[in-house]
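Fold this sequence, please.
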Amino acid sequence: MELFKKIEERKALLIDKLLAKGVYKTKDERHLYDVPLKVLEDEYKLVVDKPDQHSPSSWMT
């Protein structure tokens, strides 16, 4: 039961971080609350690794 609680806490944290970055659905259009932890982790990696479109370095080079 403890493992399930930790997984749910991790999912909630990742969902909060994704929402803060303006991500409301996965790349395949599923709601964040409907996907497993692995999908949330993959989505978060995509957001973190994607260059910030508002950053001058991404459009000046």
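Residues 38 and 46 are 12 Å apart (CA to CA). The chain has a mean pLDDT of 86.
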